[in-house]
């Protein structure tokens, strides 16, 4: 291929036409440039023109070593920016591994198509390694900030520009997950454990067919990584624009310890679905059947890693996040909200605190913020509120005649009742006999091994204005938590606030009643255990009416009207009490 001159006569004719069209421009260039000992022939390929010039011998040596002499010696059209001898560190580049030499130097100086330096130029040039470089000027020109000293050395297969220095390679965010450059070995190992290399046929240089199989003069491989799709963060693409919180090893260990406490799995757990792939010791067979032969240490470790990383990425092109483009180290971030790629939303101080003490490092497709402490609120990330709507909860009523889902609109609501019914529906549980007390069980999904403040929201009897009654009575209930202990044995515990174990609702409002704290010793997140068919494993809350007296004289209403159950992580419950008016939301609606 080195002496390949197919189509050269046509190319020469086009070169002469181009030379005629640019005669006036050339006279202007002479005012700004000398040839630096570089000359060329429009009848020669770019490679032949590079090779013929002694002042480009270092560039030629490196291109030959990288195999890109073959690329720029074909009939395909290229533009090459070649640095003069002595304007870059030849020895350090020559010592690079071959793949790095290709990616960081050879492909960083070559682009497809023809980019002449003529008149006013303002081009974003995509190089062979997909980096985007600015080519700018009007009479004098720069390429990615490097001075072009001899432009427009016309060649039969494109254009050669000579520069006063090499074009620096800027890694993208994914490439920068490199523990050789930064103290980020933990996150680097986690991500690169999922690396795959796939042939990029579109950007590989095709060769002849040998024995019926296509060969390549240059095989370009692209890295793919399933975690990028799991976290919805395309930080490997050059045309993307992201901000990434980058935990140092110190920050990673702090986060790992904090998250681990919330994800205490035990082998009895029925594993059905988790947000990870590649659980190396979990076969498809035991994964589907719920066998207890899984490596639960591996399960625990995988989910902890996922939880640490899922909230680290922000797409700067989203309206909420555009402020991150200009945020610099030491700046105080002032923003109403930020939205990450996991669709979690962070308001006010929650957003600004994430960047406190972090250092910005610019990359080719955004910026990373290196931090020694991930300041993500746990209730916004790995330990959120768990809310079970009464109408959606997996509930079963015992000793009851019926459970009914009741709609209520704002227009129908009694104006004398404070508050609103969540989601516009609530659940009624009716006793089977006038003197009996109903109970309802709600199974609790995605519970972590942590302490929750438990709330039950009751709806008063006269919530509907059209069924207004003067004889409105409160509920009085006992609340019990069902769970499994550390040995997997089913247990129950009656909730209390101090010594109080019976809780009465307020008939003047849709009343969210605090019924006590409870600590789950085991984690159920991702297990698929959340319904009655798995009652021996699923955590649940049981609400029992404890109305006394004859039905017509009892001071309490036996009918349960439940809007929702809410498990609030105890650290959030305390924070809200200490910060009245605190605004938070885990996910975008």
From TrEMBL:
Signal peptide positions (record): 1-27
* Keywords of this entry: Signal
* InterPro entries in alphabetical order: Adhesion/Biosynth-related, FAS1_dom_sf, FAS1_domain
What Pfam families does its record include?
A: Fasciclin
Coiled-coil residue spans: none
All residue ranges annotated as the FAS1 domain in the record = 43-167
- The entry's protein name is Fasciclin domain-containing protein
Q: Which organism is it from?
A: Hallella faecis
């Amino acid at each position: 291929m080195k002496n390949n001159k197919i189509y050269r006569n046509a190319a020469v004719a086009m070169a002469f036409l181009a030379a005629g069209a640019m005669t006036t421009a050339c006279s202007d260039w002479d005012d700004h440039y000398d040839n630096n000992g570089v000359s060329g022939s429009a009848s020669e390929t770019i490679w032949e023109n590079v090779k013929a010039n002694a002042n480009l011998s270092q560039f030629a040596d490196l291109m030959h070593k990288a195999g890109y002499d073959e690329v720029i010696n074909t009939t395909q059209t290229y533009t090459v920016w070649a640095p003069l001898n002595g304007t870059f560190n030849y020895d350090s580049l020559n010592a690079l591994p071959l793949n790095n030499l290709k990616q960081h130097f050879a492909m960083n100086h070559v682009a497809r198509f023809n980019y002449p330096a003529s008149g006013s130029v303002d081009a974003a040039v995509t190089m062979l390694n997909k980096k985007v470089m600015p080519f700018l000027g009007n009479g004098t020109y720069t390429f990615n900030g490097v001075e072009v000293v001899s432009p427009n050395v016309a060649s039969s297969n494109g254009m050669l520009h000579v520069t006063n220095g090499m074009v620096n390679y800027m890694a993208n965010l994914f490439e920068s997950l490199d523990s050789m450059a930064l103290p980020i070995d933990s996150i680097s190992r986690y991500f690169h454990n999922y690396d795959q290399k796939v042939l990029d046929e579109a950007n590989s240089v095709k060769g002849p067919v040998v024995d019926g199989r296509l060969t390549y003069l240059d095989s370009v491989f692209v890295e793919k990584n399933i975690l990028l799709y799991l976290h919805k963060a395309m930080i490997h693409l050059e045309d993307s624009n992201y901000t990434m919180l980058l935990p140092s090893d110190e920050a990673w260990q702090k986060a790992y310890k904090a998250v681990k406490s919330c994800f205490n799995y035990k082998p009895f757990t029925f594993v059905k679905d988790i947000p990870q792939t590649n659980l190396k010791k979990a076969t498809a067979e035991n994964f589907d059947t719920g066998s207890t032969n899984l490596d639960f240490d591996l399960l625990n470790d995988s989910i902890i890693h996922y939880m640490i990383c899922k909230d680290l990425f922000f797409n700067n092109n989203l309206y909420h996040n555009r402020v991150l483009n200009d945020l610099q180290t030491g700046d105080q971030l002032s923003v109403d909200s930020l939205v990450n790629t996991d669709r979690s939303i962070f308001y006010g101080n929650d957003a600004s605190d994430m960047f406190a003490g972090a250092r910005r490092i610019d990359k080719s497709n955004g910026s990373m913020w290196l931090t020694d402490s991930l300041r993500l609120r746990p209730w916004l990330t790995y330990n959120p509120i768990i809310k079970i709507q009464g109408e959606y909860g997996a509930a079963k009523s015992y000793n009851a005649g019926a459970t009914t889902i009741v709609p209520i609109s704002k227009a129908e609501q009694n104006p004398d009742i404070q508050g609103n019914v969540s989601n516009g529906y609530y659940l009624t549980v009716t006793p089977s006999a006038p003197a009996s007390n109903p109970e309802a069980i709600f199974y609790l999904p995605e519970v972590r091994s942590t302490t929750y403040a438990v709330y039950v929201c009751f709806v008063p009897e006269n919530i509907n204005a059209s069924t207004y009654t003067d004889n409105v009575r409160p509920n009085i209930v006992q609340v019990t938590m069902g769970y499994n202990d550390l040995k997997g044995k089913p247990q129950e515990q009656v909730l209390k606030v101090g010594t109080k174990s019976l809780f009465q609702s307020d008939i003047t409002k849709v009343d969210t009643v605090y019924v006590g704290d409870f600590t789950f010793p085991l984690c159920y997140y991702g297990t698929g255990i959340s319904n009655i068919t798995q009652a021996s494993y699923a955590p649940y809350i049981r609400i029992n009416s404890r109305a006394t007296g004859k039905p017509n004289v009892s001071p309490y209403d036996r009918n349960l009207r439940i809007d929702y159950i809410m498990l609030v992580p105890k650290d959030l419950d305390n924070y809200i009490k200490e910060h009245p008016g605190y605004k938070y939301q885990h996910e975008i609606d």
